[in-house]
Write a structure and sequence with these properties.
heterodimer, A: mainly alpha, two-stranded antiparallel sheet, B: TIM Barrel, 2 domains, 3-stranded antiparallel β-sheet, globular
Chain lengths: 514, 447
């Protein structure tokens, strides 16, 4: 029962967070992201931190089994392996029975697919070493390493890279992370969580002393070994009848396995339960582990990535060929003129979304979980490939601009890097300032009557002035009234100069609120 | 001309009928009597008084052939489908095929010629144009070369109907045909029989038409191609009625273009469509538009740019059992024209003359998408509206599907280079801005 509840809750969280990262249902499961430990710490979200610490203090690392999507993903990997192992055993049993009936020698099982665990002592040096380095990076602001191993960031990166890959650097890192986590989960259960994961280690400090801990009732134990053979955290010492609660993720697998009801979550500070025999709760062995079908679906959705990309490449090539053709069309009717794709300009000062307050504040808190990237409907946010801010989002206006009615990123950010703002507040926050490059402006170079930037500016910050003052023949060129510009990027997005816009937005060191 | 009363309309319509018969410019073929409600059998034929040509009342406009992408990804005409439709059309009595060197990115003439070459040369009439109005230097050499290229495409020694393409008035006429000597060349070709009928296609104002028609005594226009339909008759930005009457009074046969306004009169606002269906449940909405032009006796042929076999089949069935409109029905159409004009539709016929926009805007697709939303009653009026969220989502998602983001209305820089090209006189940048403002109101939920 406990295990089933755990699985059901884990499925809910896993599906919710995954959909969130796909960009669906922010209003329904946005809160799930806010419960993530590291983002909550960076956001100084005291309520969540206290709640998670209390939860862990009361009953151990349930967080790792339910709330953490990367933890649940590892369980999923292991479930696949165990299920395959079960099928293999069944088939083998059938074949063996057949052979026996036919009087033939029983075939041997060469390689068992299923996984049998056993107790392993804690890798203290590795675990605390990594944790130390992680905390140091966090303090020193070496963000790359933080984002690399923080579990929620890693999971976010994996999902967004599959659903909506941008460039190749971040998808490559995501793929390597996925491969690494999957391999470790397949071969060694929760080894990643108990050796590498900094959140796991942090919680282990508390779970070591938690009120309720998994414990073996020696009087009932028949030393069958089922518990530790099935312990994915390898934390049950069968000989000593001890459970290492710093590594136990409270999955209840062992409780379910124990036919004697010897394993229980027990209050650790009361009298020893040696004598009192508690009648075993309905501990009927459940051979088939029920895992919500939605979990299986999630892992299946990862496959068609390569096909999609090949298709897009093909479509792109076809499109560019058609555009070349259309260029001959000046003398005939119809067709579409070529449009060069825009390239983002080099910005002296980084742009960060409204609500981030300053680049400094933003980068200090951002865990690169990609949630804002996934929820940006305007194609403005994308993961950066700059070494200094690898995987953290950056803003560009080549495919859209920061629309006035949208505050999605500020609503979803679980780490407090982008603080929540309202639509009304957004219109009063200046995140950058438009700068005109007169060498690119078509009004200047081609003498075309344009003014696209000025007519589209929602802040009325651009006015068209004569290139030569008082000369009615000279072209009208845009000029930016600095303190009106809010840096939304509409001018940059709609500028007809391609591939580089003649007007671009420079970030402000600190955002200005009116 | 917009505010003409219904009575005037009827009078004018009936007057035109009488005028047409009196002028005897075009004798009706195969049993159609003007103003009569008698149903004809088979494709009606009209007689050209100049040459005696028996021309099918439904002509094929070759400006809207189906397109596809070839192996290299280029947009090309789907020749296989063109062949099928040309075969079907000829089989059902259509014998007038109108193309131009500039249509469909310059591919129309070749594709049309290819399909027609599979039929005997005397089973159809070729109409094509001297399209020296865009991009080309209006020189004598360029014009003659274009004419000769058309002869070569059709692999023929004569063109049945040759048009000066899109002549809006005297100034353009002088610049493109008079001063460079091209008109003299064409008159010589006509005299020698290589051009059997010389005429012009017209888009413009009443004054522009007067200017060109004043030259009729000098050059003798064998025919004239004008835009005419029941909306433009009284409610368009020029009066089709005026143009028609002027031509008929001079005995010039009239070729009709845009009888359906590029399909706009087949997809009318739903309440209007329902009115049509109440009267003739089994006839298409488009059939009314064809019956309107077909009822006018001065009409030699009505061109329809049929892209799909279904269009062709529907139109052929309209003409094969052709039923002219009576006075009451003309009155009904006038009422419908008034209703349609009250909708905030963009009068774009999708002719593609404005394209390619130098900044990559997909003008006709933007207008088509907007018009179809208007017709379906899917335009939101206020955020208070009960189904506002639904309308908002429907418009925005279908807009992104219909038009690539970088080709949408917001990218228009109002350079105005499209404006002189639009035969409907649409102020395109202004309309694009209107649509973009609507999109912005939807997105920001401000009305």
């Amino acid at each position: 029962m406990l295990k089933k509840t755990r699985i059901a809750l884990a499925a809910v969280f896993f599906v919710g967070i995954t959909l969130l990262l796909v960009g669906i249902g922010q209003q329904w499961w946005g809160w799930m992201a806010k419960l993530q430990f590291l983002p909550a710490c960076l956001a100084l979200n005291v309520a969540v931190i206290v709640a998670l610490v209390l939860l862990t203090f009361v009953c151990g690392r349930i967080y790792c089994s339910v709330i953490c999507p990367l933890g649940v993903y590892q369980d999923l990997v292991l479930w696949v392996r165990r299920t395959l192992g079960k099928f293999q055993m069944k088939r083998f049993a059938r074949r063996a029975a057949k052979a026996k009936a036919a009087g033939k020698p029983v075939p041997k099982l060469e390689r068992r697919l299923g996984k049998t665990f056993g107790y392993k002592p804690e890798h203290k040096a590795l675990r605390y070493g990594i944790w130390g380095v992680f905390v140091l990076c966090l303090i020193l602001g070496i963000q790359v390493l933080v984002a690399l191993i923080a579990p929620y960031s890693a999971y976010g990166r994996i999902v967004t890279s599959i659903v909506n890959p941008v460039g190749w650097v971040v998808p490559l890192i995501a793929f390597l992370t996925l491969a690494c986590v999957t391999y470790l989960a397949w071969t060694d259960g929760r080894s990643w969580c108990n050796n590498i994961c900094p959140v796991g280690t942090t919680l282990s400090f508390i779970s070591r002393f938690s009120l309720f801990r998994m414990a073996i009732d020696e009087s009932k134990c028949i030393s069958c070994g089922k518990c530790y053979k099935n312990c994915k955290a390898s934390c049950i010492d069968g000989e000593a009848h001890k459970v290492d609660c710093s590594r136990c993720v409270v999955c209840f697998d062992c409780v379910e396995q124990c036919s004697e009801g010897a394993l229980k979550l027990r209050f650790a500070y009361g009298s020893k339960p040696a004598a009192k025999a508690v009648p075993a709760p309905a501990a009927a062995p459940a051979p088939a582990e029920p895992v919500a079908p939605s979990e299986a679906k999630e892992s299946a959705s990862e496959a068609p990535d390569a096909g999609k990309r090949a298709f897009m490449l093909g479509a792109l090539m076809a499109g560019s060929a058609a555009l070349l053709h259309a260029q001959e069309g000046e003398k005939t009717d119809g067709g579409l003129a070529a449009i060069l794709p825009k390239k983002a300009p080099k910005r002296e000062q980084r742009l960060v979304p409204p609500g981030a307050e300053s680049a400094k504040h933003f980068y200090k808190h951002c865990t690169a979980c990609q949630l804002c990237v996934a929820n940006c409907p305007n194609n403005v946010l994308r993961p950066s490939t700059d070494p200094g801010h690898l995987m953290q989002p950056k803003m560009d206006f080549d495919r859209g601009f920061c629309r006035p009615e949208c505050t999605n990123c500020s609503q979803v950010c679980p780490a407090g890097a982008i603080l929540p703002i309202t639509k009304e507040e957004k219109s009063m926050i200046h995140i950058g300032r438009a700068v005109v490059d007169y060498d690119l402006c078509i009004a200047n170079t081609q003498g075309v009557d344009c003014g696209s930037c000025a007519s589209h500016c929602p802040a009325g910050a651009i006015s068209m002035v004569r290139k030569v003052k008082d000369d009615r023949q000279s072209p009208l060129i845009p000029s930016v009234i600095e303190d009106r510009c809010i840096g939304c990027g509409k001018c940059e997005y709609l500028c007809p100069s391609r591939p580089i816009s003649a007007i671009h937005v420079e970030g402000l060191v600190s955002h200005i609120k009116e | 001309m917009g505010d003409i009363s219904r009575r005037d309309f009827i009078k004018a319509g009936a007057g035109a009928l009488v005028l047409g018969s009196a002028a005897a410019a075009c004798k009706s073929g195969s049993g159609v009597k003007a103003g009569d409600t008698e149903v004809s059998e088979g494709m009606p034929l009209r007689t050209n008084p100049n040459t005696g040509d028996k021309v099918s009342l439904l002509g094929y406009g070759c400006m809207r052939w189906p397109m596809k992408r070839d192996e290299a990804g280029n947009e090309v005409i789907d020749q296989e489908k063109v062949n099928e439709m040309v075969d079907y059309a000829i089989e059902h009595g259509v014998n007038y095929f109108d193309s131009a060197p500039v249509y469909l990115q310059g591919q129309s003439e070749a594709a049309t010629a290819k399909a027609l070459s599979r039929h005997p040369r005397d089973s159809y009439y070729i109409a094509t144009k001297l399209s020296n109005h865009r991009g080309f230097e209006p020189t004598y050499e360029a014009g003659v070369a274009m004419y000769r290229r058309s002869l070569a495409f059709y692999d023929t020694d004569h063109i049945d109907y040759y048009l000066l393409h899109n002549v809006p008035g005297m100034e353009a006429f002088r610049q493109r045909f008079l001063d460079n000597g091209l008109l003299d060349f064409l008159l010589k070709e006509r005299a020698e029989g290589r051009i059997r009928n010389l005429g012009f296609s017209f888009h413009g104002t009443e004054r522009g038409l007067d200017e060109i028609l004043a030259l009729h005594d000098t050059y003798h226009w064998d025919f004239c191609q004008i835009q005419m339909n029941y909306v433009d008759w009284n409610h368009g930005n020029y009066s089709a009625r005026y143009a028609y009457e002027e031509l008929v009074s001079r005995g010039i046969p009239v070729v009709i273009m845009e009888p359906l306004l590029g399909g706009r009169l087949s997809s009318v606002p739903v309440p209007v469509a329902e009115r049509f269906k109440e009267r003739e449940p089994s006839r298409s909405v488009a059939s009314w538009a064809f019956r309107f032009v077909g009822t006018m006796p001065g009409v030699l042929t009505a061109l329809s740019g049929m892209t799909y076999m279904e269009h062709l089949q529907d139109n052929i069935s309209t003409f094969e059992r052709f039923k002219p409109l009576n006075e009451e029905e003309l009155e009904f159409l006038e009422e419908m024209a008034g209703l349609i004009s009250n909708y905030p539709l963009v009068p774009c016929t999708g002719c593609q003359y404005c394209m390619p926009c130098p900044y990559g805007i997909d003008i006709p697709s933007i207008f088509k998408h907007y018009n179809s939303s208007v017709n379906s009653g899917l335009i939101a009026q206020s955020t208070e509206q009960k189904d506002f969220r639904k309308l908002r989502k429907a418009y925005l998602t279908s807009y992104d599907k219909a038009v690539e983001t970088v080709r949408q209305a917001d990218h228009c820089i109002s350079c105005n280079s499209c404006v002189p090209r639009c035969p409907q006189g649409i102020r395109i940048p202004r309309e694009l801005r209107r649509i973009d403002n609507y999109v912005e109101s939807l997105k920001q939920e401000t009305f």
